[in-house]
C-alpha cells in the first residue's frame, strides 16, 4: 500500500504480503478497495462539510441585519453632526462632506419581509434623505459663482 497524498492510500497491482517487525503480516488482497472507497468518501464529505460551513457563515439573521442598519444610521447621523460643527466653526467642510458621502454610499442591509420593521425602515430612509440633501446643498454651494 502506498500513500500518495490527501486522496488516501492506493494499492499496487497484484496481491502481496507486507512484513513488519515482529513477524506480523498483512495481506493486500481485496482489503485495499474498501479502504480506498472509505478514503475517497471521507475526502468528499470533508469538502461538503466545508461548503456547508461556508454557506452558513454567509447567512445573516434578521437581528444582525437590524443591528447593521442601526449602526449605519448612527454613523450617518454622526457624519451629519460633524458637518454641522464644521460649518458652524467656519472650518473647511470638504473632509466632513467626503466622510458623509462615503457613509451614504455604504450598502444598506435589506430587510426580509417577515423581519421588516416599518418604523426603523422609515427612520433610516429619512436619515438617508437628509444626508443626500446636505450633499446636494454642498454641491450647489460649490458650483455657485
Automatic annotation (TrEMBL):
Q: Does the keyword Aminoacyl-tRNA synthetase apply?
A: no
InterPro entries linked: Flagellar_assmbl_FliX_class2
Instruction: Name the residue ranges with Polar residues bias.
Output: 7-16
Q: Write down a Pfam family by its short name.
A: FliX
* Keyword hit for Cell inner membrane: no
Show the segment(s) annotated as Disordered: 1-42, 102-121
Which intervals carry biased composition (Basic and acidic residues)?
Answer: 102-111
Keywords for this protein: Cell projection, Cilium, Flagellum
Per UniProt, the ranges with Low complexity bias are 30-42
One of the protein's GO biological processes: bacterial-type flagellum organization
State the name under which the record lists this protein.
Flagellar assembly protein FliX
Q: Which organism is it from?
A: Brevundimonas goettingensis
